[in-house]
Design goal:
CATH class: Alpha Beta
Number of helices: 5
CATH superfamily: Dehydroquinase, class II
Distance between the termini: 9 Å
Shape: globular
Length: about 150
């Protein structure tokens, strides 16, 4: 069974409270449970991790090699300026799918720039929590390829 690690970046622990008109009302805990269930339906073992700290996310990316088949990353605001996260992704052989709940391309101009996109397999954005489910569907396909 392919293993997928979902990494939630800064402020995603505030889901359900933070700007519900953009991010919805589902909490991170409920989202994680939903993603584990969806993963099971797709034949995936899903684990999740959230941190507001760049170094914690980098450590998890580094540690994913040999442990996970696919990473799904919502880097939050780090998406737009963290060359350290970009370099961490580039340094591992694990495919990474970039995900965003909002459509980052129709918001503030700075959000349309992703410094991590060039080193990910693809980007899914704009579908709320369903963005993660779409990423899991893509991960199932990638996971089967690497197994």
């Amino acid at each position: 069974m392919p293993k997928v690690l979902i990494l939630h970046g800064p402020n995603l622990n505030r889901l359900g409270k933070r700007e519900p008109e953009i991010y919805g009302t589902e909490t991170l805990e409920r989202l994680d449970a939903r993603l584990r269930t969806k993963g099971e339906e797709l034949g995936l073992k899903v684990e999740t991790f959230q941190s507001n700290h760049e170094g914690d996310l980098i450590d998890r990316i580094h540690g994913a090699e040999g442990e996970y088949d696919v990473l799904i990353l919502n880097a939050g605001a780090f998406t737009h300026y963290s060359y350290a996260l970009r370099d961490a992704i580039a340094s591992v052989e694990v495919p990474v799918i970039e995900v965003h709940m909002s459509n980052v391309h129709n918001r503030e101009p700075f959000r349309g720039v992703s410094v991590i996109a060039p080193v990910t397999r693809g980007q899914i954005s704009g579908f709320g929590v369903v963005s993660y489910e779409l990423a899991l569907t893509a991960a199932a396909s990638l996971g089967q390829q690497v197994q």
